[in-house]
Write a structure and sequence with these properties.
Elements (H helix, E strand, L loop, with lengths): L25 H7 L13 H5 L1 H34 L2 H4 L14 H9 L2 H33 L4 H10 L9 H9 L13 H8 L2 H12 L3 H9 L4 H12 L1 H17 L2 H6 L8 H8 L5 H31 L6
Length: 328
Amino acid sequence: MSNLTVQPSRPAPAARPGSAPARTGRSARRRRGKEPAPQFRGVVSPHTLKSPRGRVIYWIVLVAVVVGFTVAFVFPLYWMVTGALRSPEDLAQMPPSFFPESLDFEVYAEAWDQLNLGRFLGNTLLYAGGALLFTLAIDVTAAYALSKLRPVLGNLVLGLMLATLMIPPMVILLPAYLTVKDLPIFGWDLLNTPWAIWLPAAANGFYIFLLKRFFDSIPRELLEAAQIDGASATRILWSIVLPVSRPIIGVVSILSVVTVWKDFVWPLLVLPDSENMSISVGIASLSAQMPQNVLIAALVIASLPAIIVFFVFQRSIMAGLTAGSLKG
């Protein structure tokens, strides 16, 4: 048996007196030199903003841009509201006055009675409510299937849905009208019925994309735990996915209602009967017989529901649109 000699290990060289211990990684880089601070580039350099003249110019430009865009968006609303309170002579005055000479609030009651806005509002509310229910029933289930059930050719189906967003609405107006006029397979004529509004409103690729993006952010472990407990796909959708997805469902609901409320061309084609007209089509059909201030008052009444919905739920809309965009 051969003798094995073990070489003694050399001790580590002792540090010189007064020298600092060796550093690695970030500490070593800091020792060699300070890390450069992150640079943020913009239209105005930080050096310019530090000078008094640069700050003054910056704030002048910022305030001018904000005020200009605010006036551009708010002035049409102001002109619509005050135009209803003016007399026909005041509206025909050239150049027009910025402030009305007299305020006549009775014009709103006159517009309500003469244009039969109660019936038109009721019809529009029926169309918007039905479109909301069909949109949630069809788009939520489609987005859930594409996101969590992963069917065969699911990506292809999603791509075709998103491709419809690139087609101008006026291009598919005639095919959609012919489809509603003679529904394939069944042969039903859906003109002058709420189905002509409900079914096209439910097939929306943008809503499906928003819902799918949110469903993708839901942890898959949560759904797998429910599957282990014996829950079916329908049960998981109803008890887990829908309660978690309230923000994006609220956004889709608001957008679908507002879209049906303000639509004009499609209801004009599929609802020619005066008893079934939406409020936008009804006001347009009677506009030639009404004074201009009465017509503007009717437009104000028709716009109020959509404006109120937007201002009340604007935080929910922005929160729902950004929800699910970041993971982790």
